[in-house]
Amino acid sequence: MAQLSECIYLSRSLIAPHSVDLLDIERAAQRNNPQHGISGCLYVDATFFLQLLEGPEPALKGMLAALRRDRRHIGMLILRERPLSQRRFADRAMMIFDGTASGVRSGIQPSPLDLHEAEKGDATRLLQLLDGFEPTGPRH
Ligand SMILES: Cc1cc2nc3c(=O)[nH]c(=O)nc-3n(C[C@H](O)[C@H](O)[C@H](O)COP(=O)(O)O)c2cc1C
């Protein structure tokens, strides 16, 4: 069986947070991720995407290649890529966290400062926030 891996990246969004474009991304994730054994979460606000992907390494590599070609965001910055022993979003194709002021703010909600620091090269607090999130679903 392929090694289970995790990848976390930050990028700049080129789409509106509550838009058909975002709905298309959610739909693609629901359609494709389970098929490839990928689970994870996506934090979205008016400026950034922060995505955590977990799954078999070859599947993650393929997904990252598609993401790099995607023109709905730019400046993909990989914050972490490493082997994983247990998934944190086991039962979720892609759990969405809405970081816009008008939305209900729950789950993973990084501060603008944490996001900008990560973009400048210090992702410590952002990664701590993700690591502190309670795992969902069965532990495997
Ligand atoms: C920030 C961001 C996150 C995305 N996350 C996923 C994802 O988790 N799964 C997925 O299949 N596509 C995701 N996409 C879309 C892919 O880049 C690509 O458009 C999609 O996988 C193509 O799917 P299709 O071949 O079924 O049309 C994301 C795009 C963006 C901009």
Question: Can you characterise this structure?
Answer:
The protein has 140 residues and is α+β, with helices and mostly antiparallel strands. The protein has one domain: Alpha-Beta Plaits (2-Layer Sandwich), CATH 3.30.70.100. The protein has helices at residues 20-32, 57-69, 112-120, 124-131; strands at residues 4-13, 39-44, 48-56, 73-83, 95-98. A 5-stranded mixed β-sheet has the order 4-1-3-2-5. A hairpin with a 3-residue loop joins strand 2 (39-44) and strand 3 (48-56). Bound molecules: flavin mononucleotide (FMN).
Task: Looking at this protein, list some descriptive labels.
single chain; 140 residues; alpha+beta; Alpha-Beta Plaits; five-stranded mixed beta sheet; 5 strands; 31% helix; 29% strand; globular; binds flavin mononucleotide
Tell me the number of helical segments per DSSP (H or I, 4 or more residues long): 4
The CATH topology is what?
Alpha-Beta Plaits
Number of domains: 1
CATH arch. level architecture: 2-Layer Sandwich
End-to-end C-alpha gap? 14 Å
* The level-1 CATH class: Alpha Beta
Q: What is bound: which ligands?
A: flavin mononucleotide
Question: Main sheet?
Answer: 5 strands, mixed
